[in-house]
Amino acid sequence: MATISRTGFAQVEPNHLSGIVTGQILAQLPVDTDEMGTIIENGRFAKYDYAKGAVNLSGAGEWMLIYNEEKLYDERKQHHKDFAMIASNYSDGEIVPRLISTVLGDVFTTNAFGECAKSDSATVDGIDLEVGDLVSVGENGYLKKVDAAADEVAADDAPTFQVAKVYTMADSQPGVKLMRIK
Which of 7, 13, 8, 9 is nearest to 167 (CA)? Predict the structure, then answer.
């Protein structure tokens, strides 16, 4: 068992995301910052809500993985944990993230659990996970552990992932390799 906690922003390593290959990538709607906040991290999930014209957490669309191209300007001092889309960094304050559809069998490594980090040096409390555990998308778009025995998986419309490997992110922080199973 490992405690998946992090310092800095959440990260994603796209081991096998078929949405990238098939072009199931959406990136034209701005984030509803009233609902999602002004910091958007890789690894969080959101919905592409055409009806409201925004990326949000409450729309009728499917849950999709946020995976943006990282803009790091000094590779000697910056790491994956240093990147998030922050509204104040954009001239109009509008964040337009890239959302990728995930399908059964997709695999990615992440540490996007719990909640949003407030900065690239903030610590987010950990979650204990081991191989075989199930995780799903929480109401805030971050991953959470679910209890299969309590039937949480069947009742929820969010995708479900199984921990395939307890892993280490590129910057030596703990992470997990997940495979989509529902």
Answer: 13
Contact status, residue 166 vs residue 129, Cβ threshold 8 Å: yes
Is residue 83 within 8 A of residue 173, CB to CB? The reply is: no
- Sequence-ordered list of residues with C-beta below 8 angstroms from that of 30, at least 6 positions apart, any chain: 53, 54, 55, 94, 95, 96
The span from the CA of 56 to the CA of 33, in Å, is 8
φ, ψ (nearest 5 deg) of residue 12: -135, 135
Higher pLDDT, 137 or 152: 137
- The amino acid at 160: T
- pLDDT tens-digit profile of 5-48? 999 999 999 999 999 999 999 999 999 999 999 999 999 999 99
**Sign for the pseudo-dihedral over CA of 135, 136, 137, 140:** negative
**Cα 111 to the center of its chain, rounded Å:** 8
